[in-house]
Write a structure and sequence with these properties.
Elements: H1 33-41, E1 45-50, E2 59-64, E3 70-75, H2 88-91, H3 94-98, E4 107-112, E5 115-120, H4 123-140, E6 146-150, H5 155-165, E7 170-171, H6 173-190, E8 207-211, H7 221-232, E9 236-240, E10 253-255, H8 262-275, H9 281-287, E11 288-289, H10 291-298, H11 303-310, H12 314-327, E12 331-333, H13 345-358, H14 391-395, H15 407-412, E13 426-430, H16 434-437, H17 441-450, E14 453-458, E15 470-473, E16 485-487, E17 493-495, H18 510-520, H19 532-541, H20 547-553, E18 555-557, E19 581-582, H21 586-590, E20 610-615, H22 629-634, E21 639-642, H23 644-650, E22 657-662, E23 671-675, E24 683-687, E25 715-716, E26 723-724, E27 729-733
Parallel strand pairs: 6-7, 6-13, 8-9, 8-12, 9-10, 11-19, 13-14, 14-15, 20-24, 21-23
Antiparallel strand pairs: 1-2, 2-3, 4-5, 4-15, 16-17, 17-18, 20-27, 22-23, 22-27, 25-26
């Protein structure tokens, strides 16, 4: 394998644009009898799918006209995720297929003297290169020195490949940067997490508290629809947010909290519930331990104590606490999803879990329901080889409550650590742009330069593909079969994704890549099926269905559902050491952590600086959709929210372009200003995912500012490794280019 002493970023613009061969089978294929039968029924063909634009994976139908051209994507009426309706992003999914900036051919990095570039390669050549590189790493270091970063459905096949190769070092950036602290905080309290999608019975709740959850902007489909239902019914909504968000505009109470003081507010709410004896006493007496310790801990956390910390008036804290208690147990304090903020995130989630426990909503109608999940047998394969070391071993005692591997920690293991050489020698990166999604991008670039092999699998030329040795172009989710969607919810339900179109260019589905690569590596025994149809037929046959049936219905409910809510007087058992809800955690105490969350004041911005807050937009999923021709038209760039008092001080006006400079003198791309009273004076806000650096992304290139580039200080949660990004501060830069 050619040795690259320095892996430079290469813009893939102009490469991989030749005509390509068609790939996997699809319903559009003339030889497919089902496709032919459907066409004969009418002038349009509909194909079942589930969306890949975000993790919600709503099931729906892809329609094309009599010429075979894309027409629309809509929800499947029987799907518990979409409830028959797709969100803005989902209906824009056709743009993923039509985007002319897509990757088109396998690419291999080549070095001629001091110059590096990519050249088009055949699939055979690309697989030979990868197999040779992986075998070399295994022989010289061991297979555990290769890691997989994965985000998306097709990544599951690559996980199987890596385990078969002999490495269990698999990570998803979403764990440490999004949902992990929530999962561990709730496990420490209730003994289990709350699922994905979350087990929230919003449609039946009487009081919904949103704290870091921006319904209407994050577009988690089921929740947004149910949120609309309770708005229409006049239910009580409390929103805690430094911004007057979309959700705040629909709320009975808006609490414009000072950023980084959330735990103080939650502890004050708990104080009010206990002090005024308005918590769910019977539920707690039967199902929880540690009430006395909790009462002792929060005695001093009065609303008056919280006022100078949070900026929220004591009467507002008391009023909203009483509002929650009034409707309990049909009250939900939403645990949010992206919860990696300040470095104490697991304890903040613990505090939210304790608050929900006091409201008695676990297993209650209008609270957290009990999920059902279909049991679909896996396709059998040989037992995986046992790795010499695992990600748990690599942690060496750090983050004792991590139940998955933090992605940034994996990144750091590709850096030189004092006298130690980098541990990782190879990365396989599926569907995740590590340059933009990991904090401290310069560290990521340094890590990439240290690796012997980097393989990137993507549909688009995201920045990470410019650092790869081999780029494998995946066809979009509308052009491929994938594994079944088997996710938890109110029903035990499965959904099928089938190809509506032939793969464009020379792109292929992830399952096909893995199948072919396994042959090159001598691992084909782990993929004993001949094609994806055989694989799916096996799994579906085990639950009494078939591809023919699923292609007609898209979604199927399976028998065996358990009740969603606890019965009156039912004794619950929790998967904690005590078998009870643990308001006081001996497990944390024994590990040297606070058994009950405490508040610690975080760093505040210096004069002339403002806390950088970022968030979601209804039009886009992170940075993945910015170049989508349909969704880009809705929102081509992000805006910087600035309070009028701040704008007056700096002479800023709406529509003006400005750059931002953070506390470490990193300067952003230019971004357009929006002066608004809908944000506090001590922070600024922008939507995440903009400011792409690859010119091949012709709609997204250079549009807006990339918040990730300004996140140079990261607060690590000592319990499970969450990477908190909200400790960064910015000021305004009027330099070159604005």
């Amino acid at each position: 394998m050619p040795q690259v002493t320095r892996r430079e970023f290469i813009a893939i613009s102009g490469l991989g644009i030749g005509a390509g061969a068609w790939g996997a089978s699809s319903l559009a294929n003339d030889e497919n009898p089902l496709g032919k039968a459907l066409r004969e029924e009418g002038v349009v063909v509909k194909t079942p799918t589930y969306c890949e634009i975000c993790f919600w994976k709503c099931a729906g139908w892809t329609y094309k006209d009599e010429q075979g051209k894309p027409w629309k994507v809509i929800g499947n009426d029987d799907d518990q995720h979409s409830m028959g309706r797709f969100c803005t992003r989902g209906t824009g999914g056709l743009g993923a297929y039509t985007d002319d900036s897509r990757l088109r051919h396998p690419l291999i990095r080549v070095k001629n003297g001091d110059k590096q570039t990519f050249r088009e390669a055949s699939w055979e050549e690309a697989f030979d290169y990868i197999a040779k590189g992986l075998k070399k790493i295994a022989e010289e270091h061991g297979p555990e020195h290769v890691a997989l970063f994965s985000h998306g459905t097709g990544g599951d096949f690559f996980k199987t490949l890596l385990k078969a190769y002999g490495s269990s070092n698999i990570t998803a950036p979403s764990y440490a940067q999004c949902r992990g602290a929530r999962a561990e905080g709730f496990k420490l309290t209730f003994g289990e997490g709350i699922g994905s999608p979350e087990r929230l019975d919003i449609k039946n709740t009487d009081c919904l508290v949103l704290m870091g959850s921006h319904l209407g902007e994050n577009l988690h489909n089921t929740q947004v629809q149910e949120f609309g239902e309770i708005i229409g019914k006049g239910k009580s909504i409390i929103t805690v947010d430094p911004r007057f968000s979309t959700a705040a505009g629909k709320s009975k109470y808006w609490l414009p909290i000072k950023p980084a003081t959330d735990i103080a507010l939650v502890l004050a709410w708990i104080h009010v519930l206990l002090k005024e004896d308005i918590y769910q006493k019977k539920f707690i007496a039967e199902n929880a331990i540690g009430l006395k310790e909790l009462q002792d801990e929060v005695k001093g956390y009065t609303p008056e104590w919280a006022y100078p910390i949070t900026g929220l008036k004591p009467e507002d804290i008391r009023t909203t606490a009483r509002e929650m208690a009034r409707y309990a147990p049909k009250t939900i304090v939403h645990p949010s999803r992206h919860v990696a903020w300040y470095g104490d995130d697991t304890q903040r989630m613990r505090a939210l879990a304790i608050l929900n426990a006091l409201l008695g909503n676990w297993g209650a109608k209008g609270g957290f329901y009990f999920q059902n999940k279909a049991k679909v047998p896996a396709y059998p394969h040989p037992e995986f080889p046992k790795p010499k070391s695992t990600w748990v071993d690599l942690l060496e005692g750090k983050y004792p409550f991590a139940n998955s591997s933090p992605a940034s920690f994996f990144r750091d293991l590709a850096l030189k650590q004092e006298e130690k050489d980098p541990f990782f020698k190879g990365w396989i990166i599926y569907g995740t742009n590590l340059i933009q999604c990991l904090p401290e991008p310069e560290k990521t670039k340094e890590a990439l330069n240290n690796l012997d092999l980097v393989v990137a699998i993507d549909t688009m030329p995201a920045a990470i593909t410019g650092y790869a040795d081999v780029v494998l172009p995946e066809c979009t989710y509308l052009e491929r079969y994938d594994d079944l969607r088997v996710s938890a919810g109110r029903k035990s339900q499965i959904a099928l994704r089938a190809p509506a179109f032939k793969p464009k260019y020379n792109t292929k589905p992830g399952w096909w890549m893995v199948k072919e690569l396994s042959k090159k590596m001598g691992l084909e025994a782990y993929f004993p099926w001949s094609n994806i149809e055989e694989y799916l037929e096996f799994r579906l046959g085990k639950v009494g269905s078939s591809l023919a049936e699923m292609n007609k219905i898209g979604v199927k409910n399976l028998p065996g559902d358990n009740p969603l809510y606890r019965a009156e007087g039912e004794k619950l058992h929790f998967q904690t050491p005590s078998g009870k809800i643990e308001l006081y955690s001996k497990t944390l105490k024994e590990a040297g952590f606070d058994p009950i969350p405490k508040f610690t004041m975080h760093e505040q911005p210096q004069k002339g600086f403002y806390r950088l807050i970022y968030g979601r937009t209804p039009a886009h999923t992170f940075g993945r959709t910015i170049n989508n021709p349909l969704l880009n038209e809705i929102m081509p760039e992000n805006m910087l929210w600035v309070h009028p008092a701040v704008a007056k001080e700096w002479g800023l006006k709406t529509g003006q372009y400005i750059k931002l400079r953070n506390q470490d003198d990193v300067v952003s791309n230019k971004i357009v200003v929006r002066v608004t009273e809908r944000i506090r004076v001590d922070c600024v806000y922008m939507a995440h995912g903009f400011g792409h650096t690859d010119p091949r992304l012709k709609r997204a290139y250079g549009k807006g500012a990339d918040d990730s580039s300004l996140i140079t200080r990261v607060k690590i949660d000592p319990l499970m490794g969450a990477t908190g990004f909200r400790g960064n501060f910015v000021t305004f830069d009027f330099g070159e280019g604005v």
